[in-house]
């Protein structure tokens, strides 16, 4: 899980060969979670726009009831202890793997990401892997003073009820990122997926709940009113949110009413800096997947690339050459590794930013237009060179398959540009001299700076943003601590 990119171009995941059985499993899984006939909200296939199913639309009253159930279940869940909770998380991972293909196919249709590559099957596999890693992570009491007269230990106790509010780009995996440590620490969870991708998360939670006690993990599905009620609920002790900076600010305001603790992973516009000593051909694949994984719809994707003048043309050529041969298409088509934009709003943002870059003098090296032959929300893999800071495609988060490449001549210029926006989720430095790369990395204002890769995450390595990209850490020991309340035992 540390960095999926080496396997992306040639995925080794095999599909089920029993099509009839697979379709039956898909139908059965969907039937378990969707709204009754004639109720709920229709959810379209991102690639074909056909209706997949109907998501329940829970009301504010339903949210209140879910929080009450979670609150009532929490003491008993806390009392079973870390060892039993870890055992159940391991069992939940087994259940995910047993339902992996049906989960992946539902995710592929609803979100749009293909089955192959670092996409739907990869995401479902990551859910199981993350549950196991979280279950196996130890959080021992920390002795802070032991001088013969004073013995003080720092412990972490369960908070209570956690609200987990997830996005539409990696809906299953990010839900597990939130849910796994919360459950591991003895909290109960009310999870609300994005209204764009509710069915896949409802299905995931349903599968996990095959092994959990009742009301320990509850999924709700609704509109923004439902989400606002959940994050401001007086009986919620912690809010974990992944999404836009604007929504994150609203959650901060609403948390004043209940003093809920917050972990916020918000918007990003990650910069990459390519130093002049690189081999362009050697870094092209890593640059591509850093920018275009999940068709660019990733919070910590590479979204603006600063390349030194000495290697600028060669890097642009190598990157475009690699990108031109990566197949895009409908998610259920085997061999496809790039899919559509998930929704019309995001498609329109990408289209607007690319058109503005063209009008500003940007040179379209690849793509630069919708792929209407593939479907309504497809946009061709796009690389725009010869743009600069101040152009909207550089300054705004595109969250799609369009990468601006900016020329620089002095590394001080590139560092200033990378730090010039009010975001700081991730960044990367590309160089054949790791020490030189580390010196540049230390000056970048980002929660994570990768060297010669971009966006890889690991369940034991803390992850979080700075500035407008939010605050709080996830993953590993620090992630467990964030889902607990510290208690000092002194004596």
TrEMBL record:
Which molecular function terms from Gene Ontology are attached? oxidoreductase activity, acting on the aldehyde or oxo group of donors, NAD or NADP as acceptor
Region: Disordered, residue numbers: 1-21
Which terms are listed as keywords in the entry?
Oxidoreductase
Q: Which domain of life is it from?
A: Bacteria
- Which residue ranges does the record assign to the Aldehyde dehydrogenase domain? 42-482
Q: Does the keyword Membrane apply?
A: no
- Active site residues per record: 265
State the Gene3D superfamilies in the record: Aldehyde Dehydrogenase, Chain A, domain 1 (3.40.605.10), Aldehyde Dehydrogenase, Chain A, domain 2 (3.40.309.10)
Fetch the PANTHER family from UniProt: ALDEHYDE DEHYDROGENASE-RELATED
Per the record, the similarity remark reads:
Belongs to the aldehyde dehydrogenase family.
The name under which this protein is listed is Acyl-CoA reductase
What species was this sequence derived from? Microbacterium enclense
Q: What is the lineage of its organism?
A: Bacteria, Bacillati, Actinomycetota, Actinomycetes, Micrococcales
């Amino acid at each position: 899980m540390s960095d999926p990119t080496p396997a992306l171009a040639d995925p080794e995941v095999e599909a089920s060969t029993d099509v009839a059985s697979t379709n039956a499993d898909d139908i059965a899984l969907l039937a378990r979670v969707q709204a009754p006939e004639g109720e709920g909200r229709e959810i379209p296939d991102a690639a074909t726009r056909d209706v997949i199913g109907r998501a329940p639309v829970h009301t504010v009253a339903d949210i209140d009831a879910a929080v009450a159930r979670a609150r009532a279940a929490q003491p008993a869940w806390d009392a079973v202890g870390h060892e039993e909770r870890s055992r159940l998380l391991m069992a939940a991972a087994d259940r995910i793997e047993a339902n992996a293909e049906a989960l992946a196919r539902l995710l592929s249709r609803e979100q749009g990401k293909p089955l192959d590559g670092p996409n739907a099957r990869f995401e479902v596999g990551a859910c199981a892997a993350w549950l196991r890693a979280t279950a196996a992570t130890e959080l021992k009491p920390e002795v802070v003073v032991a001088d013969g007269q004073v013995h003080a230990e720092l412990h972490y106790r369960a908070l209570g009820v956690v609200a987990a509010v997830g996005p539409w780009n990696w809906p299953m995996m990010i839900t597990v990122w939130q849910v796994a440590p919360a459950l591991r620490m003895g909290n109960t969870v009310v999870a609300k997926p994005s209204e764009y991708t509710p069915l896949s998360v409802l299905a995931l939670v349903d599968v996990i709940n095959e092994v959990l006690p009742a009301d320990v993990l509850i999924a709700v599905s609704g509109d923004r009113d439902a989400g606002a009620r959940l994050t401001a609920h007086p009986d919620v002790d912690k809010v974990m949110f992944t999404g836009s900076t604007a929504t994150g600010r609203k959650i901060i305001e609403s948390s004043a009413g209940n003093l809920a603790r917050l972990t916020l992973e918000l918007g990003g516009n990650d910069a990459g800096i390519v130093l002049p000593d690189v081999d362009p051909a050697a870094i092209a694949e890593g640059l591509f997947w850093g920018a275009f994984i999940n068709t660019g719809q990733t919070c910590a994707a590479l979204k603006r690339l600063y390349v030194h003048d000495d290697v600028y043309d060669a890097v642009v050529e190598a990157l475009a050459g690699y990108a031109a041969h990566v197949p895009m298409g409908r998610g259920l088509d085997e061999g496809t590794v790039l899919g559509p934009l998930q929704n019309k709003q995001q498609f329109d943002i990408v289209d607007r930013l690319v058109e503005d870059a063209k009008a500003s003098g940007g040179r379209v090296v690849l793509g630069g237009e919708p792929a209407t032959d593939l479907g309504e929300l497809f946009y061709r893999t796009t690389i725009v060179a010869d743009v600069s800071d101040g152009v909207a495609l550089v300054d705004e988060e595109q969250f799609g398959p369009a990468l601006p490449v900016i020329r620089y001549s002095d590394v001080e210029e590139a560092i200033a540009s990378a730090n010039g926006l009010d975001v700081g989720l991730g960044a990367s430095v590309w160089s054949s001299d790791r020490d030189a790369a580390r010196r540049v990395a230390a000056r970048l204002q980002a929660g994570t700076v990768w060297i010669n890769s971009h966006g890889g995450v690991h369940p034991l390595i803390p992850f979080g943003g700075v500035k407008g990209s939010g605050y709080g850490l996830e993953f590993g020991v620090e992630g467990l601590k964030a889902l607990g309340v510290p208690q000092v035992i002194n004596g």
